[in-house]
Structure formats: C-alpha cells, structure tokens
Design brief:
Blueprint (H helix, E strand, L loop, with lengths): L1 E4 L12 H4 L3 E4 L5 H7 L5 E4 L6 H4 L7 E4 L9 H7 L2 E3 L6 H16 L2 H9 L2 H5 L16 E5 L3 H12 L3 E5 L8 E2 L2 H7 L2 E4 L13 H6 L4 E5 L8 H10 L2 E6 L22 E3 L8 H19 L9
Parallel strand pairs: 1-2, 1-3, 3-4, 4-5, 6-7, 6-9, 7-8, 9-10, 10-11, 11-12
C-alpha cells in the first residue's frame, strides 16, 4: 500500500505518525506546495491531507488513488463530486477535537469578556506601577451569569460550548437546523440581536458561507463579542474589522481565516494587537490529545477501507 502524507507539519512536530506509516510504504512531506501535489501523489493509493486542495487539477494524474483521508472533520478542501466520479473514497475524522475547540472557545470568551488583555498590558507596560492606585477597573466588565451566549451550530462542538456556557450561568441561545430540546433556540437574526457573546461552530457550506455579514453584525448589541472557530469564510472579515474599528463590536476572537495562514493584506491585520481582539493561528483543534486521537482514527480509517468496511466515509 502506497501512502503519501502531504502536509504532516499541520499535525505538529511532536506527533507520532507511526500508526499510519506502519500500514504500508509511506512517504511523509512536512509541507507541499500546490504545484507539487500532482507529482507527489502520482503513485499513491492513499493520500493523507489536511488543508491542501484535492480536485481534478491536483489528482488527475493519481491513477492508483483509492482513498483520501482528511486529518480533520471538515473537508471543504476536497472536491467531493470529482472523487465520486473517479470512485475515490473520502474519509474524515469526526468529533476528535470537540474538547480542544470548546476549551479554546471558552478561553477566548472569558479573556475578551473580562478585558483580560487590557488589564495584562496595563501591568506589563508599567502603567499600574505608575498610577499610585491599588486597582484598575477599566475596561468595565460583567459577570457571565448576567450575559446571553449565542451558539451558532448544534453539532458536537457547539453543544459542548453551550453546556460550558450554561455551567457558567449564561443564558444560552442556540441556532441550528435540526430540532432542539436541550437549549432555547432562535433564528440567526434573533440570536445576533439578543446575544452578548456569539460563537460560531458550523461547517463551511454554500448556506453558511458569508452568513455573518455587515447587516447581521449591525444587528448585534453594542459591545457584543464574536468568536469564530468554525471556518474563516463563514464571516465577512472586512465587516468584522470595521465593526472593531467603529467600536460596535466589543471583542473579536478568531482562530480561522478565509486564507491561511493569515494574509498580509487581510482586513483583520488592521486590528491586530488590539486589547479586544484575539487572533490565533488555527490552533483550537490541536490539543496534543486531539491530534493523537486524529492520527489513530486515520489509521483505523485506512485499515477499515482496505478490509472492505469503510468507516467515517463521506464519499
């Protein structure tokens, strides 16, 4: 079995890939440029990939290809129609990073809601020492038990975040397509207008692309906090930057971007370094335990496929 891992660096230098590489003749690349994909997968039976585009352009010459394993839950980088037409199976890894993403979401929300970055800077730059006052209470912050947390997306991560928010005493509103019995529900516009904290936990689809746009941001409360740990393209990044610059949004936490890594000409670069902005490098999914779990499931996906019993199959 010829296995090619195209972007191993996205899994972290500390992670053990042997559960996958032990399954066959494996070639591991830390990174792969788009122009290099076709040559590197020409003889592959299995491709293991995270973010690179898998489509006709990159896969046309992969004549032996049987299986693509994405090292993620989302697979919007893969042309599923092309895979189906070619008879290429696509498998993902569901639910492996639920705890990791939920915990980073909570950390962002707590830091932004309490003004923690501003208070840290106030001490670090010497302002506290020079003030002669025993405490500082600006920016003003509020107990989370007085706030409404809107969760957009009712999958595993969204539900875990909702339960964490509820445990902190927040009123929780959930927007999801399926029927919901555990949490109070609202459509997206109502959620945007009522929530003090809004966190996004949806896949990137044609329905969700650009769902957080300027008009919806305008409906949000003055000083609301928005957190996106879903996909960058579900939100209009120009509109988000403008809302921070105008002061309409009180806080912004983003771990995902429409182009990754964050492009130098991204509008979000205009708000880098602000005390009420927390931008992180698509790391929320990547607790050590989550990454090890991901590798283990990929190995099981490969074994199950070649045993004739494909699991976690998308196509």
């Amino acid at each position: 079995m010829r296995i090619v891992i195209l972007d191993a660096a996205t899994l972290g230098a500390d992670i053990d890939l042997s559960p996958i590489t032990a399954l066959g003749d494996a070639t591991v690349y830390d990174t792969t440029a788009e122009a290099e994909i076709a040559a590197r997968v020409a003889d592959a039976e299995v491709i293991v990939v995270n973010k690179l585009k898998m489509n006709e352009k990159t896969l046309n010459g992969a004549r032996f290809l049987k299986l693509i394993c994405v090292t993620a839950t989302g697979y919007d980088n893969v042309d599923t129609a092309y895979c189906r037409a070619r008879g290429i199976t696509l498998c993902n890894v569901p639910a492996y990073s639920t705890e990791s993403v939920a915990e980073v979401t909570l950390a962002m929300a707590l830091s932004l809601a309490t003004g923690l970055f501003a208070y840290r800077r106030y001490v670090a730059d010497g302002s506290y020492t020079a003030s002669g006052v025993a405490n500082a209470l600006t920016p003003v912050y509020h107990e989370l038990s007085t706030l409404t947390w809107g969760v957009v997306g009712g999958g595993g991560i969204g539900r875990r975040v909702a339960r964490m928010a509820k445990a902190l005493g927040c009123r929780v509103l959930m927007c999801r397509r399926a029927e919901e019995t555990e949490f109070e529900t609202a459509d997206l516009d109502a959620l945007c207008s009522e929530a003090d904290i809004i966190s996004l936990h949806v896949p990137l689809t044609e329905d969700t692309r650009g769902m957080i746009h300027a008009a919806r941001i305008a409906k949000m409360k003055q000083g609301a906090i928005l957190i996106n740990v879903a996909r960058g393209a579900v939100a209009d990044e120009e509109a988000l930057a403008a809302a921070i610059e105008s002061g309409h949004l009180g806080g912004l936490g983003i771990d995902v971007f429409s182009r990754e890594p964050l492009a130098a000409d991204s509008p979000l670069c205009r708000v880098l370094g602000r005390d009420n902005v927390c931008l992180t490098p698509h790391m929320a999914w990547g607790a050590a335990e989550a990454r090890a779990r991901c590798v283990a499931v990929i190995a099981e996906n490969i074994k199950a496929f070649f045993a004739g019993n494909a699991q976690n199959r998308i196509v």
